[in-house]
Amino acid sequence: MNDPIIVINGLNKTYEGGFQALTHIDLTIQRGEIFALLGPNGAGKTTLISVVCGLVNPTAGHVLVDGFDNITHYRQARERIGLVPQELTNEAFETVWNTVSFSRGLFGKAPNPAHIEKVLKSLTLWDKRHNRLMTLSGGMKRRVLIAKALSHEPRVLFLDEPTAGVDVELRREMWEVVRQLRDNGVTIILTTHYIEEAEEMADRIGVINRGELVLVEEKAALMSKLGSKQLTLNLHTALAGLPNSLQRFDLSLAAEGYELVYTYDGSQDEDGHGISALLTALEQEGITFKDLHTRQSSLEDIFVDLVNPKERA
Length: 313
What we know:
By secondary structure, this protein is an alpha/beta fold. The protein folds into two domains: about 5-210, Rossmann fold, CATH 3.40.50.300; about 230-305, Alpha-Beta Plaits, CATH 3.30.70. It is built from ten helices and 14 strands. It has helices at about 45-50, 75-80, 95-105, 115-120, 140-150, 170-185, 195-200, 220-225, 275-285, 300-305; strands at about 5-15, 20-30, 35-40, 60-65, 70, 80-85, 155-160, 185-190, 205-210, 210-220, 230-235, 250-255, 260-265, 290-295. The strands form three sheets. The chain has a six-stranded mixed sheet with strand order 6-7-8-3-9-10, with helices on both faces. Helix 3 packs parallel to helix 5. The longest helix has 16 residues, at about 170-185. One of its GO terms (molecular function) is ATP hydrolysis activity. Keywords: ATP-binding, Nucleotide-binding, Transport. This is ABC transporter domain-containing protein. InterPro entries: AAA+_ATPase, ABC_transporter-like_ATP-bd, ABC_transporter-like_CS, ABC_transporter_ATP-binding, P-loop_NTPase.
């Protein structure tokens, strides 16, 4: 995937009064990926989406959408974008079919009932097409928002907190919808503060905090690079302290000396500080264990470290 569909360079946004919502954002989104923008509330996620979609003007920098500058070629850039906002703002008395078809017309697209049918079926809304929006459940209304965003055949879909306020079962249903959209060739950018959402779905993850893009990384590489692991050994005999020969390892004692906890990452295997080296050192010291188990950092652990490292100190 070396074909960028969105290129953001030097983006800044300062509001009247001096509040700087975005600080020098550089970001490239590859065609066909699911990119999760992760950050706490107020970090700048929605502002960044709003700038890319042309709803908010930047103070500095520029954005290209499929090669079109989103200010100088606003119409061409905007028609390539579908936006699903956080708020459920639907026309309560309108039918599903009419509201989705109307959204297509807003982009100057000719009527295409076959496309609207395809979108509604892909979102399990076809049986509800004649229903008024006021009669739908919250989950169905959120699907209608996605259908509206897809009505004009965009190449990029922004989902701003797509599962905020919905239950776990519906959240998983929405994840499946997003995967299907990606499989159909739509590039997905989602903002979320649900760690599990990014961990479950994203190909790459960006972490934004206080308007700055702290990190952008492939999910697997991020977890491998920053995600520490713990090996806990349940010892036969309690240790009062650590022998000198074990000082080179990141070890701690727990459970009154009956547990030896080793914190490590994959790179340590290469420099003589890995698990195999530890087990050899334990054998040489005559320290035996009856059981062991491992734990790997979740994305939530990594996120807390990045956004507020003092919390975990």
